[in-house]
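Internal ticket - ligand job 404, iron/sulfur cluster:
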Amino acid sequence: MSKQISAELQDALDRAADGGRIEYEEALELYRHAPLHSLGTAADAARRKRYSGVYGENGEIATYIIERNINYTNACVTACKFCAFYAAPKSDKVWSRPLEDILRRCAETVALGGTQIMFQGGHHPDYGVEYYEENFRAIKAEFPQLVIHSLGASEVQHMAKVSGVTIEEAITRLKESGLDSFAGAGAELLPARPRTAIAPLKESGERWLEIMETAHGLGLESTSTMLMGTGETNAERIEHLRMIRDVQDRTGGFRAFIPYTYQPENNHLKGRTQATMFEYLRLIAVARLYLHNVAHIQGSWLTVGKEAGQLSLHYGADDLGSVMLEENVVSSAGAKHRSNRMELIHLIRAAGRVPAQRSTTYNLITVHDDPANDPVDDHVMSHIASTAIEGGTAHPELKLVDVR
Ligand code: SF4
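stdout (structure tokens):
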């Protein structure tokens, strides 16, 4: 192993690679000082140890999911500085999707073999719990096979306020109306300084975690996310992981951790800072090593590119996210990568892993262990809608894009 790190740090690396627990200071030191290759080797070992005999004999399977993000409105009172999607509620750029439009998108998702939808939108000033209940009940009535993996603590806080109910009541009613799990959106950066800098009107990071903890206690699991690259420090990145790990110690309700990178176009931050691919890979690796209590680490291709996505599978990630049949939020901020199911399968296989389609709960649906049996349906592609919604975006300079 490398001679460039201290014996103490090597010990932390070895302990984490073996599935053991490391502390915040060790994780930060590893993030800052461990050679990239050593980090990747240790994170890959930790992944293999966890998944050998579970995802293939030697943990060789890497997963993906087919899902659709459905954006129900761009109206938002929260005005996050990194966001290129929202419009002020009184703006003439505001739109909301009618229920029949949402149901049509669900039907297309089912037709293309999608198993999950992510209901995603702004904090509309009038949308309380009732709005989500109506939509989720209608979706489940027509498409009981679709998993609704959506929303996060920020939306819960907002809708509870609009409806004048407690967080517990809001979560319970969402669950009863069909929400299967929370997507964990809105985590952004949890530590106070960077969160206030980019999302001053959002609830605090502590409050975000408190609401997710309440959801876990009420039987709704979630994923967790992190937005990298808006000017946060190394220490703040690892602090974000620590805050998630502490809650996970108590609840076990975070199924996955999903970091993604800030996109620089059409938002108030104007791309003054951005995370590099190396920072992203280091974060993926340290997340695998430090978040020993979170089962799944998701690599991304949407914001960091396909090659970085492939590399993430060698830095601790066990999942490459989704064929996003529709995505409008980070695309509006400049994420230009597109893919499809056949390409995702190829990317995973070319990275030396066995691709498999998974469910929301990470059960394997189809293992693509024989290329001769690969699917050939080229309609299962990302972004079948648009990078900007026709006739109604906060950013008219964005044009409708159809990649078919
Ligand atoms: S990130 Fe979400 S909460 Fe923030 S402005 Fe955009 S839509 Fe609103």
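Auto-summary: Residues 234-251 form the longest helix (18 residues). Residues 48 and 59 are 5 Å apart (CA to CA).
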